[in-house]
Amino acid sequence: MKYYFPALLLLLFSCSPIADKGNSDSITRTYGPIGSSAMVSTAHPLASKVGKEILLKGGNAFDAAIAIQFTLAVVYPVAGNIGGGGFAVYRSTDGQVGSLDFREKAPASAHKDMYLNTQGEVIPGMSTEGHLAAGVPGSVDGMFKLHERFGSLPMEDLIQPAIELAYEGVQLYDRDVENINKYQELFKKYDHGHNQLIKETPWQEGDVLVHKNLAGTLSFIRDLGRDGFYKGIVANQIVAEMNRGSGLITKEDLANYSAIWREPLVGQYKGYKVISMPPPSSGGVALLQLLQGAEQFDFSKTGHNSAETIHLMTELERRVYADRATYLADPDFFDVPVDMLLSKGYNTDRFSSIKKDQSTPSSEIKEGKVDIIESIETTHFSVVDANGNAVSITTTLNGYFGCKVMVKGAGFFLNNEMDDFSAKPGVPNQFGLIGNEANAVAPEKRMLSSMTPTILEKDGQLAMVVGTPGGSTIITCVFQTILNVIDHGMTMQEAVNAPKLHHQWLPDRVLYEEGTLDEALLGELKALGHEMEPRSALGKMDCILVLPDGKLEGASDPRNYGTAAGF
Ligand code: GLY
Question: Read out DSSP for 500-548?
């Protein structure tokens, strides 16, 4: 895939440098859009527009988030979804915090060895492509659960904008065209007619993509509630699609799906309260471990992306991702030792082996051999309303367009979330992440995630809403974005724009964004023992920061084409 990010990033940084922190008059800061009372930040301008309109109509942040989720399913089919799942973290105006797990589940007939051949080897592609890769979708039930508890406008009003966009069609951006054209062969492979993304001649920027069947599916959901998806016509269409491709999802799996309210994880970082997603996401645990480790250093002194800072962040990350592979899984199936992993004693000890002048090979932390990260797509959005309610949602089909199977007649893609299970202990998934028995496939189990929707509070007040797509890189991108604001004094937009890096224990190499580290710095890092590998882009953040005057700064990542919009 072609990314435009590095050139854009260099442009942003050269146009708007933080010229000299010692002479405040000369500082030119880069801010995202500022709103005096409310803000949304999403991966697509139309989703941001819909979210903002819901807020202007008097809807709250939960209403806007629900409308955005349904709109993204239409305008951003690469990751927006009703055929996938996700996580929501919220902080309501009275300071109550919570989280909703609408992660997909393994079908009831799924089993531990379902992706292995008779020799016990993983069958390549089986958990990433086609019908067997799909977990039972959770997004629709999640949105109804969120609405039931917090919605203020009628659900119909929140789904209607998506229906209209699906019916009228959506103009494609160059990035959409690139993705949709790239996957034509796979779409055709799994199509039994009706996939509106298939076209004999390449799609062009500005073409209008109409989603008539999806408009119909969304109308069933509007009129019949969750049953419009999990029962009746749409459920029958999903099951018929499964039967065409030997998939496992049954009517019972769909009828039985239920999103779960979970206690969010709450930690501290330099006076901020950090609220994030508990298991089955690894995101919250890993982020809070990283922040505990970061408190042992002073990144504001070592400086943003200096060799010392990158080295120390990398050393924290390799240890935390090794823990992730061993201990994290669906808490309804595995006793995840969250308290231990977040205890001060454990982390002080865990990070005590970090050497300031030398990297620790990952093989010394735990043996393993894995492959490279493949394509990564998910989407994140952040919303704050005029009353101070904040919602942070990361939602996904997993890979680009999920398993590439569009449900015939229903107009939406199914996820390939089953790949987030560990198909076999020690064998990497599409993100190069390895796992063990804790995250093995089991009937009705939720697969481990890295999604890290997060909210920060300072002195009892909302401070920041953050999140990003990016598979295994989600956690480290959220970590760096938080450090960028708190330790490096960046605005939200600068924190989002800033070059990111990533290490995940195995493979033992530091990913960095191509063109963002100079040769001297790369040389210093190599001398410390780090293998450095360029990537076109890391993260596509959509975040909101509360400014000292109470206004809201939205920031959508220039690596993507989303927008922040407020008032
Ligand atoms: N599918 C990406 C994740 O959940 O981490």
Answer: -EE--SSS--EEEETTSS-HHHHHHHHHTT--EEEES-----EEEEE-T
